[in-house]
Design brief:
Length: 450
Amino acid sequence: MLKETDTTDNMNGVILEEDNEETEQESARKCHGFLGGYLISFIKLPPLLGMLLVGALLRNVPVIDVVGNHLDPNWSGALRQIALTVILIRAGLGLDPVALRKLSFTVVRLACSPCLVECIAEAIASHFLLGLPWEWAFMLGFVLSAVSPAVVVPSLLNLSDRGYGINKGIPTLVIAAASIDDVLAITGFGVVLGMAFSTGDIAVSIIKGPAEALLGVAYGVIGGIVLWYIPAKGDNFIFYRGMTLLGAGLLATFGSAAIELSGAGPLGVLTIAFVAAFRWRKEKKDNDQDPIKDIVAILWMLFQPILFGLIGAEVQISKIDGQTVGLGMATLSIGMVVRLVVSFLAVFKSGLNFKEMLFIPFAWFPKATVQAAIGGVALDAARRKGDATLEAYGEIILTMAVLSIIITAPIGAIAIAITGPRLLKRTVKDKEYDEEDVQNTDEQAEITKV
């Protein structure tokens, strides 16, 4: 296969020195996260696995766990949101409008069907295996059914940068569906949480989900059009354009959370980058590099170890109840089998061949971001109620969220990295190659180089 090196492999650790203790700990986590990713890349595994592992070690290993256990949650939450904003901007810039228009119905099917069916399967399994009441069982189902954009998007962008699947728009399909999938899962979780604790009007909670999605898309479309004209062209306007895009994305992420419409944020970031890039592409010549993508790629190099290190640090081994691990594994396994089957069926009659359809379930496997974000919400609500029974249910949901991160994030990342080059066609300079053809091209290139 043609030799390419992931930008993370060549990145030197950057440690930002600040006076306050929390920032120093974040800087240490970032440096260690990068180092873990760099080392694990030597054994041909995705660097994000090393970053996840280092984050988990800094939270669970005695002596060094001071870094993870004394971390200000406000700092870590904000940094995680910034990193997710950067990767969603990068994803939006990488969306192919032609492929998206062609696959629009498939995007909706892939976003909704696996999420809802897995939620139902895990709710039924957890009700009978773990003894959860139906409201809590469906709450767990929505927590576990969300795919992780933090794992899926970088993995798909890496394949896209190397030319895999772009002939059919597969990276665009998966990235676009991942954002909708998360909004659906978070919305469902919020509705069931309100039912379980009887907070607020249920009808309002149900309407809130679609309203958040529409608000996010509307913000992205309007903001993207504004970015066609602002900033005006001049000296360093590419840099200013990149920073303006980043600022608009951060406004969507933190602004939506501030007005308690957090589901609108991710779709807003994805949409604003996509709409802005639609016009920006016409300004550059065919063979020119995309400078905005380069700026965002540099930002991602800086924030990638932070994001995965912090996600890894959410894994607290001491909070995993041994009595529920076995039944929890069974519940998770049932849901994942159902998800893999439904993901495969969701892309039928979408123009993909059998190998490409087979790749979709592997790409739809990892979980991490949503589980880390909302896994403990139900437990916090139960503790505020002061009900020991509800706290026990909340601990089961948190344990299951941790298990899903430990199991699916590394397996999913490895599966995407391994199956992508084997199941997807590679397009190099507008020509398609099978894996054997690409290997032959590599050999010829090596001979020519010698």
